[in-house]
TrEMBL record:
<feature type="domain" description="HD">
    <location>
        <begin position="32"/>
        <end position="117"/>
    </location>
</feature>
<dbReference type="Pfam" id="PF01966">
    <property type="entry name" value="HD"/>
</dbReference>
<protein>
    <submittedName>
        <fullName>Metal dependent phosphohydrolase</fullName>
    </submittedName>
</protein>
<dbReference type="InterPro" id="IPR006674">
    <property type="entry name" value="HD_domain"/>
</dbReference>
């Protein structure tokens, strides 16, 4: 492991190794490496902010956060975030993890696409979202050094066209249950009352992020 990442290395534990094995065997390489980068960017964010957090729990949240996009863990009617959270819950429960810690990981995964809330919660919840926002949207890109970004991507490479690849992966994972996308009440109300209102577009933010490719 690069010295740049030594302080936030993946925990050397049986639990972490089994998480790695399960996610690697279940997710596509794109999602596996994305989830791994989410862990590193989340952990580096926590380190930069001086936050105290359990690295195993952060790793579990990061690695399972997109599990709901996989065929094996995609339900018919639940949001993909909930599917991923449930997969993590079942895995952690089978390994004797306390209910309090399971609930923390579940919440981190369930909220990782709900901006504006996780940042006010427990560090594990906040840092899973921070890692996702950095890797997918390039948020706080300039708060990481070139050496940190390069070390993370060297360990877990981005595909040449990652932005389009991740958008396609999201689409493939949710297209069979469009009703689960309902929910941003504020945007719906503004769109109803303000004829010139335009909601922010997730895909547009990805494509215009500071990341290349």
């Amino acid at each position: 492991m690069s010295p740049t990442l030594a302080d936030v290395a993946i925990p050397d534990s049986k639990l972490a190794r089994e998480i790695t094995e399960l996610v690697r065997d279940t997710e596509s390489p794109l999602l596996f490496h994305h989830s791994s980068r989410v862990y590193y960017f989340g952990a580096l964010t926590g380190q930069r902010r001086g936050l105290k957090f359990d690295r195993e729990l952060l790793y579990a949240g990061a690695m399972f956060h997109d599990m709901g996009l996989t065929h094996a863990h995609s339900s018919e009617h639940e949001r993909f975030e909930v599917d991923g959270a449930n997969a993590a819950r079942d895995f952690l429960r089978s390994h004797g993890i306390s209910q309090q810690d399971i609930d923390l990981v579940w919440t981190a995964i369930a909220l990782h696409t709900t901006p504006g809330i996780p940042q006010h919660m427990h560090p594990v919840v906040a840092l899973v979202t921070a890692g996702v926002e950095m890797d997918v949207l390039g948020m706080a890109y300039d708060q990481f050094s070139d050496a940190q970004r390069e070390a993370v991507v060297h360990a877990h490479p981005r595909t040449e066209h990652f932005k389009e690849d991740i958008i396609q992966t999201f689409y493939d994972g949710i297209k069979h249950k469009p009703a689960t996308t309902f929910g941003n009440v504020k945007a719906d109300v503004l769109a109803d009352k303000e004829p010139h209102f335009h909601a922010g577009n997730f895909c547009s933010v990805i494509r215009h992020s500071a990341w290349r490719g």
